[in-house]
Amino acid sequence: MVLDKLSSSLKETLQKVAKAVFVDEKLVNELVKDIQKALLQSDVNVRMVFELTKAIKERFLKEEAPGAISKKEWLIKIVYEELVRFLGEEQGKIEIDPKKKPFKIMMVGLFGNGKTTTIGKLARFYAKRGYKVATIGLDVHRPAAPDQLEQISKSVNVACFVDKKEKKAIKIYEKFEKELSKFDIVLVDTAGRDALSDDLIKELNDINKKIKPHEKLLVIGADVGQTAESQAAKLHEACGVTGVIITKLDGTAKGGGALAACAVTGAKVKFIGVGEKPEDLEEFKPKNFVGRMLGMGDLEALLEKAKDAMTTEEAEDLGQKFLKGEFNLIDMYQQMEAMSKMGPLSKVMEMIPGMGQLKLPKEMLAGQEGKLKKWKYAMNSMTREELEDPETISGTRIERIARGAGVSTADVRDLVKQYRQSKKLVKMMKGGSMKDMGKMMQKFQGMKGMNFK
Predict the structure, then answer these.
(1) What pLDDT does residue 3 have?
(2) How far apart are CA 127 and CA 114, in angstroms?
(3) Distance between CA atoms of residues 144 and 155, nearest Å
(4) N or C terminus of the chain: which is more exposed, having fewer CB within 10 Å?
(5) The sheet that has 133-138: what strands, in order across it?
(6) Do 280 and 390 fall within a single domain?
(7) What is the CATH number of the domain that holds 264?
């Protein structure tokens, strides 16, 4: 999960609300302290943290809850809305204007933030949406930059223009300008530095004036934390940054600081990098992002991920099938196979409403993709009755199934164990400690679609 520790802390905080007998000022004070602690541990600026929690407390104490919802639901709604506002509220979407061909997106940033890798991800993102995309390398300072851009562009099947001999960035652009006009979108890679310097700012200014890009995106690593604010401000001053892409959000505790700091500058976060693979880039939508962090799911992101794996109808049905509880081995395998095509199972599960609230065993989610092939062999050796009701499989049958499939008995036992764990999780969601929270999340899903102000 992106910002895993922050997400876990916020979920635990909401669980306290769900289990509380009374919702009063004492509970709100506890909630505020928990949120402050979670955000400060995620390297968010102290002043911003206290402004946020003050707003949550004041709203709950001063505003009247709409008649249709309880105090618990009202408090959760306030937390959700204030976190969304905290992270920028509205999505900073890039609108590709077909009249501006090629639509030029210039990438800027310091060394080590993943700028060139992000260009590859962004190229894939737009190519998958039907745009004809090209990249051009204007980093004339780092010797390996042209080769890296070529390799990354090739891996996502987009055209790449570089000149490994030329040492003037503007001359490289002029050399390929005519060819670039044939593309819908051109992604421009520029030089980085170890730190902001006068030379870097002058070079970016010159390139900016020559190319006149329609978007200027700052690529910044989540691990820089609160210093993201000063970097964004200075580069905005240098070339008029129109948006930010935050990388490495999957592996740092400082990500909350970077997200919040960028929101303060007014430079909208337009994309976030959530992994190392080319597909691990998402449009940043504060409402969806906060919903996922709080364990409320993100069906919009789930459907987006599912486009390459299945039809829209199948994707919409995925969450319901998994949570229904009336599934057999074939159903479970088909669901897991489809989900594995959409990325790591743990990332997919957090997008399904309700599933983000569960503390799923890591061993259950880790390495499922590699097991699917062996499981399919095992299932081919089972009878129809065993596939429909795995509880009928005895120890003797496990040995015979393994021999017939050419897999180990441990593989077959692992499959049956997976099935039983899945059933157990569904039961846990339908009752017990998850019952109150599950109901609240369901109600909240409906509330999110309403225009509360």
Answers:
(1) 66
(2) 20
(3) 17
(4) C
(5) 159-161, 133-138, 185-190, 103-108, 215-221, 243-247, 269-273, 281-283
(6) no
(7) 3.40.50.300
